[in-house]
Every structure is written in C-alpha cells, then in structure tokens.
Amino acid sequence: MDCSERYNYNPKLKWNSKVEEYFIKAYGAEHFSRISKALTHPSCYSCIRVNTLKSTSDAVIEKLLAILQETRLRSSVDGITLNRDDAIAEENSNHKQLSSWNGLDEVLDNGSRMGLIKNGDVVEAKIENTSITKCQIPALDYVLFVKGSGPHTIEYGHADDQPVKEVIVSRKCAEAVLRGAQVFVPGVLACSAHIEIGDTVAVSVAVEQPGSENKWSVGITRGTVLQGSPTDPYYHERSGLYIGQGITKLSRTGLFRASEGVAVEMTNRVFDLPSLHSLLEGDIFLQNLPSIITAHALDPQQGERILDMCAAPGGKTTAIAIIMRDKGEVIATDRSHNKVLDIKKLVTEMDLHCITAFKLDALKAICKSNGSIEFAPGHGNKETFSQTFDNSDICKSPDGNVEATTISHSDLTSEEIAGNNGENGGKYLSKADIRKNIRRLRNGGGRNHSIGGRVEKSKGFSPSSFDRVLLDAPCSALGLRPRLFSGEESIESLRKHGKYQRKMFDQAVQLVRPGGVIVYSTCTINPGENEALVRYALDTYKFLSLAPQNPRIGGPGLVGHCELFDGEVVEEWLRPGEEELVQRFDPSSSLDTMGFFIAKFHVGQKDL
Ligand SMILES: C[S@@+](CC[C@H](N)C(=O)[O-])C[C@H]1O[C@@H](n2cnc3c(N)ncnc32)[C@H](O)[C@@H]1O
C-alpha cells in the first residue's frame, strides 16, 4: 500500500449491519454516507456560551484572545525548542523555562489584532490564527465560535527503509485528541520498541474490529511492541487512522509504568481546535450550538417554574436560568448522585441562584403525596464519604429535614479513599473511579466554595406543577462527534432507548400544567428516538400539539415510516406538515454541528 494512504486520517465508521441498513432506509445511501463521514470529524469550531449575568461577549472575546494567543506562542516556542534533551531537562526540573516570554504583549500592542465591526458591535475578532466570532442569530450574540482548522495533511517523515516511531492510542483517547486534548498515559495502548523522552511519534488509533460471534474487539494488548512493519498487530486496519504527531513526554517503560500524566504532547494535529477546557470558569460554558438552541426553544419566562428532568451536568439547566435572568425556579434532576454534584458545582461556578438540583429517577418523577422532597441525611464523614461514592439509594429520611453533608479534606486520607473499606455499598470501584472521586473531592463545590457533598433526593413532584418541562433524554448519542466507532448499537438496543424515552415522556406530560410547554431533545441521529417519539406523543396524548420553535436553524424532520424485523414492526415517524415544526441538526450540513433533534409540544387542556 502507498504510504500516503496509510499515514493519513480517513476513517470509515463501522456500524452494526442491521443498523446501517435501517439508517440507509431513513436517509438514503448517499446521505447516510455523508452523515457517517461527518461523524468522524469534529466540528471545525468550538462553541462557547457566555454567562451574561457575570460577563459580556466582548469581555470574554478580549480575555480568550489573550489566553489563546499566549498558548499558541508558548506552544510554538515549545515546537522549536523541545528536542529530546530539552524534554529530558524539562522532565527532570519539572517546570518549563518559559516564564520570561512576553511576546503576547507585543502581539496585542503591535496592531496585528483585527476586529470586524458590524452595527457598532464586534462580530469577529482575530489575532493571527485565532478567530472568535459572535453568533449572528438574533438574541444569540452571547454565543461565541472559536474557529479551528482541519483536516490537515501531516508529514510523518516515513520512508520505505525507515518506519516512523509510533504510539497507538485507544479510541476514546483519540476522540479526545481530535477535540484538542493531549494524549494521556491511560490512553496509550502500544508503541514502538525504542521510544525515549522527546521522540517525535506518529499517533494512530486502535478501533474495534469485527471478531468472533458478532462481537467487536480492539485486539491490541496494552504494552504491545510495534515494529512499524506489516507484521504489527492490526497494521492494515490502522491505515488512514493517524490523528497527528507529537513528542513523547515519557520513555516506553515510563509510558506503561506511569498511571497518569501526559504521554504525548501533540504538536501537529489533523484537526487543530483550541483547547478551552477550564478556561474562564463561571464566565463561559463550552456547549454545542443545538444544546443552546434547545434552551431557547423552551422559551422560559422570568418567574416561571421549570423542570429539567435529565439535567446533568447542567449545561441546558444553566442556559435556561440565564435566559430567565436567574428569576424564577429551575429544578434540575438527574438519577445519578455524583452527576447531581456536578450540576451543583456548575451552578455555584456560574453563580446562579434560581436552580435547585435533586437526585430523582425521571421514571418516577410524579409524587403520590404532597411532600415532594427528601434530603440526604448526614451521618458523619465516613457515611458522607460512602454517599459520595455510591449511586445507590441513599435517602431514607422520612422527616424531610435538611442536613448538610459537607466533606472536608482533612476528614479523608487518600488511603481511606483508595482503600475503599467496603464503604461503597459493595459496589466495585475501579482505580479510575477512585481517582475521579479524589479529583471531585479536591475540586469541591466550585472555586470559592467549601467542598460539599450534599445531595437532596426528591420523591417527585405533583402533577401539573410546572410551567415548562425539558426532557433532554438519555439516548444512543449517535450524533456525538467525533466518533470512530458506532458498532455498539443494535436495532434491539436502539429500540430499548426509544421505550425508555417514551416512559420518561409520559412523566413529563403529567408534570406540566395545561397551557404549558414540553421540549424533548436528543443527541442522536436515530429516528426511532426522535420522530418516532413525536409520533408516539401526538398519537397518545391528543391534547399535545407540535409548537413552532424560535430560533429554528435546524433542518426538517423525517416523514413516513420504516419497517423493521422483516416487516413485523412498523416504526411511524412524522406526518406531512409536521416536519417543519421540529429541528433536526444534521452533522453533514453546513452548520457543522453534532447530530441533534428538538421537538416542542404545546400542552392543551388535559381532560380533552
Ligand atoms: C443527555 S444527558 C443530559 C445532558 C444535560 N441535559 C445537559 O445539557 O447538560 C442525559 C442525562 O440523563 C440522566 N439519566 C439517565 N437515566 C435517567 C433517569 N431514569 N432519571 C433521571 N436521569 C436519568 C443521565 O445521568 C444523564 O446525565
């Protein structure tokens, strides 16, 4: 095979064959092939929502340009100076010698900064390669796009007689790298024999391959030695799966001995997207455009009572609260205890006061009696600790008393945490879970707040007690980008998602008041979880009607039906006239978003 075919990025997404057949029926072969291709690429921009209660778009643009430019300048200095010896010296001294760099100020002051001004407003600001644009959709000028680039062709320096040094990473790791992350140690699966610190390596990804009994497997054991020749495991399968080039931060031995840290610092990426994680916390939130549109489609009004049924990590909840100017009541629920902590952390960071987060199973969201909330009891720190680790039912308090269950660092040693001590309700915790929880404990309840582990459990809410309900349902997530494998879903599993979503929707219908609104959304391209849910809703509840959405920038929904299981099951989608009332975000469209679906229902008199 020609080397240039091998050392590039041209993945072909693998699907379960029946699922592929079904999607081809839904979209047509050519369109589905475009969707499939688009899913393997990240969007070429990052989307940021500004917390307009704490900052402004202009202030965020200013700060981000400064940070991004500095990062670029630093990494270009790294690129020039980071040879093997420098890297070893860096590892030894454990800090970078860049503190005297003051190039950023020069760039800011020397007039190379550009601003595109429209109607007196900055709509695009640029410094050299960094461009930040304000969203032009009316009322969404607090949404910013930070432009990335790609796919780039990378010169890996391969020659017939000299194979390149290589590192193979896991699929999840590669998907994160394509979004702008570095390669971290746990993501490394295999590498060439003689990797030293500071080596330039080609990074490729091991993607699941079809195995026996219709099962998929990666087939590369961690620690495998690569020769750079066709005798390497899955050599041919990795053709076209090269995601960039980087510099190793550890030797081969270190890579498989260490448990954390950066393994490869990416210097040449197929997709170059600025990494914005943990920047300007509280002032901004990284969020996909369709998710922001979902909050607008709900059209929450100040003073209303809103329920976000599957809310974690709180992206849409906080977007809703900000649209309401933090006035009213937003109740955010999620079934997972730890994820409710994530919501609370985000709410604290964003300094929002109208949101209350509860642990609640959305399938049991209606309370039988009036008393609707129970609180997690505090029983001292050990108990609290086990609560933080345990997703099982923790709330048995019958009296509704609120007791803070705050954890302080001094109350826990890492040994106590790592030892597990059987305090996790008998549930096995992997090392990764434990590390995650240690991080969670360290990070606590937001920047300036004490570390809090209090989670209230709700018993549910009274029927018709909300003005608006958002059901951003758990789904097959087949719209998420970038993805390098989609074979895990079968027709049966897709249908299970649909069933689960319908049950949640039944609860939403009961909770919203007559005259209220339900918004249903998913991040999947599967019509069985989108249009089929709308059909179910409209056919089951005659008092529901599809409502127009504002803004509406997504495409139309799918009209018609699809036969499954050799015609034994007919899945009904939209009827003519309904398609323009939903929003379907097609990853292959020019909007370049994730695959997403939004339907908005108006709730009429329920006794009809
Ligand atoms: C698509 S995510 C929600 C994303 C969130 N709305 C946001 O924008 O940040 C779906 C969430 O549903 C939660 N979930 C799954 N099953 C649930 C259930 N039975 N009850 C409540 N939440 C559930 C998951 O824990 C997950 O956090």
What is the strand and helix layout of this fold?
Layout (H helix, E strand, L loop, with lengths): L2 H4 L10 H11 L1 H11 L5 E6 L6 H25 L2 H10 L9 H7 L3 E6 L2 E7 L2 E5 L8 E5 L18 E4 L1 H8 L4 E2 L3 E5 L7 E6 L3 E2 L5 E2 L6 E3 L15 E7 L3 H6 L4 E8 L14 E3 L2 H10 L6 E4 L6 H9 L5 E6 L2 H13 L5 E5 L13 E3 L4 H10 L24 H6 L11 H13 L12 E3 L7 E7 L18 H21 E11 L8 H10 L3 E3 L14 E4 L4 E4 L10 E3 L10 E8 L5
Parallel strand pairs: 6-9, 8-12, 16-17, 16-21, 17-18, 18-20, 21-22
Antiparallel strand pairs: 1-5, 1-15, 2-3, 3-4, 4-5, 6-8, 7-14, 9-13, 10-11, 13-14, 19-20, 22-27, 23-27, 24-25, 26-27
Helix pairs in contact: 2-3, 4-6, 9-10, 15-16
The protein binds S-adenosylmethionine.
Q: What is this structure, in a nutshell?
A:
The chain is 29% helix and 22% strand. The chain is built from 16 helices and 27 strands.
